[in-house]
Design a protein that fits this description.
Largest sheet: 4 strands, mixed
CATH topology of the largest domain: 2-methylcitrate dehydratase PrpD
CATH class of the largest domain: Mainly Alpha
Oligomer: single chain
Number of domains: 2
Length: 505
């Protein structure tokens, strides 16, 4: 890997295009380096993971809205919408499938200087691959590039510090991944990356206060925009440049300003793209920084009950954790909505006090039951919930930013004080499903997650057909990727909410 210094440049400066970050990303995307076997295996895991969470979310209202919009754009040689027959234009398939993947906050993650859900790249690449009849091996190459670019941007450029949403890294990564998959030249990829970044920068208000369903739509929007950007670039259209480094560019006015230098690592020519191996999926449907606290709460429950203590004897719980966890999903956010039993599911998903209280009481976590209105309104839950707070601990913040995988941590130390004055302390650095956790996810766990979430949604024969196919995705010939679409039992789709008419019919 080579670290690139990225900073604002004056228009009068001599700054050749080959030094632009967008060009360097384009060169990475155009590099025909082979995909390592372990990297290909992880791509298959994430295809399974995305199908799992899409099955679980298929009749939720935001997913139904996006699917309804997409189906209003039929295209004979288009792409598939998850769960249903027929084909639509690729950008609309990416839109619908992107919302299905993201809705439950239940797929993969990578956290460094910035946050990300790199699995958000996959719906856009699959949609274009289906529409253009791409072979399976090229789809894999494109996904590998998209993960590489997003992870490297996340390592080097913090967006949330300046209240910019993390999908600003997703637009460029989708564009780069499409460039690899379609074997485009650096010039075309460069223009697409610039356009995609310019059109996908937005504020973090989508993840602040009362959080709406737009949280699920935002990544799908970035994928849709990136597809359109690549299409324009393939037709010879350019982009604002230099998009990151220009005097009126992203760094100068949206990020750290003219005095700030960012350091972005990218693979050297001929170096395999392996960033997907640094990412991790979720066992629980909740914001990633709550994964380890959920597991910690389950462990504490066993300890408390085993010692004869009732949960109603808890006087307070303080979670000592990183700055990121404290201010994003903890009490450091200053969001009273995080303690509101009438809050949206998306808000509760970003409330570690709520999540910790429910996991401690139930000893488990479920993507539907744990968020049900009647669950949030339980009197004993509200009482316990109000006793939980977070505080930033510099040691946990340092571990969050560590480059050493053995030290890097996304968890917390819980100090439980009982009404008797007794304190019980426990901590967990990484979730059980993390590669360094107690029960790391491997292929068997991805398949089990798919089987569980698709049960009652996708018939067993169709589940097995998909698993058999995806295992050999690299060998799928041109035109065969349509079979990656999982067909949902029509009786399940009949239960989807009725959506009012809009502009698209």
């Amino acid at each position: 890997m080579r670290e690139h210094d990225v900073r604002t440049r004056r228009s009068a400066d001599e700054f050749p295009r080959t030094e632009h970050l967008a060009w360097k990303i384009a060169e990475v995307a155009a590099d025909p380096v082979a995909v390592l076997p372990e990297t290909e295996a992880m791509v298959i895991n994430r295809l399974i993971d995305n199908a799992a969470v899409s099955a679980a979310s298929v009749i939720r209202r935001p997913v139904t809205v996006a699917r309804t919009q997409a189906l209003a754009h039929p295209c004979r040689k288009g792409a598939a919408v998850f769960g249903v027959e027929g084909r639509v234009s690729a950008e609309w398939a990416a839109w619908a499938n992107g919302v299905a993947v993201r809705e439950l906050d239940f797929h993969d993650t990578f956290l460094a200087a910035e946050y990300s859900h790199p699995g958000d790249n996959i719906p856009a690449l699959v949609a274009v691959a289906q529409q253009l009849g791409v072979r399976g091996s090229d789809l894999i190459r494109g996904i590998v590039t998209a993960y590489e670019v997003q992870v490297d941007l996340v390592k080097g450029i913090c967006l949330h510090e300046h209240k910019i949403d993390h999908v600003a890294h997703l637009g460029p990564s989708v564009a780069a991944g499409l460039g690899t998959m379609l074997r485009l030249d650096p010039e075309t990829i460069y223009a697409a990356v610039g356009q995609a970044l310019h059109l996908t920068t937005a504020t973090r208000q989508s993840r602040k206060g009362s959080i709406s369903s737009w949280k699920a739509f935002a990544p799908a929007w970035a994928g849709k925009v990136a597809i359109e950007a690549v299409d324009r670039a393939m037709r010879g259209e350019g982009a604002p440049a230099p998009i990151w480094e220009g005097e009126d560019g992203v760094i100068a006015w949206l990020l750290g300003g003219p005095e700030r230098t960012y350091h972005v690592p990218l693979p050297e020519p001929g170096e395999p793209k392996c960033a997907i191996l640094d990412t991790y999926t979720k066992e629980h449907s909740a914001e990633y920084q709550s994964q380890a606290p959920i597991d910690l709460a389950r462990r504490l429950r066993e300890r408390l009950i085993g010692s004869g203590a009732d949960l109603d004897q808890i006087a307070s719980i303080v979670l000592h954790t990183s700055h990121h966890t404290h201010v994003v999903i903890g009490t450091g956010s200053g969001d009273p909505q995080k303690f509101d039993p009438d809050a949206t599911r998306e808000t509760l998903d970003h409330s570690v006090p709520y999540i910790f209280a429910v996991a401690l009481q139930d000893g488990t976590w479920h993507h539907e039951r744990s968020y049900a209105p009647e669950r949030a309104h339980r009197a004993d839950t509200i009482e316990l919930w109000s006793k939980i707070c977070t505080v930033e601990d510099p040691a946990w913040t340092r571990r969050y930013h560590s480059n050493d995988p053995a030290e890097k941590a996304f968890g917390a130390r819980a100090v439980v004080t009982l009404k008797s004055g007794e304190t019980i302390v426990d901590e967990l650095a990484v979730a059980d499903a993390h590669p360094l956790g107690a029960r790391p996810f491997a292929r068997a766990q991805y398949i089990a997650k798919f089987t569980e979430l698709a049960d009652g949604v996708v018939e067993s024969a169709e589940r097995q057909r998909f698993l058999d196919l995806v295992d050999g995705v690299a060998a799928i010939r041109p035109g065969g990727l349509d079979a990656l679409n999982v067909r949902v039992d029509p009786r399940v789709l009949d239960k989807a909410p009725t959506i009012p008419s809009g502009i698209f019919r």
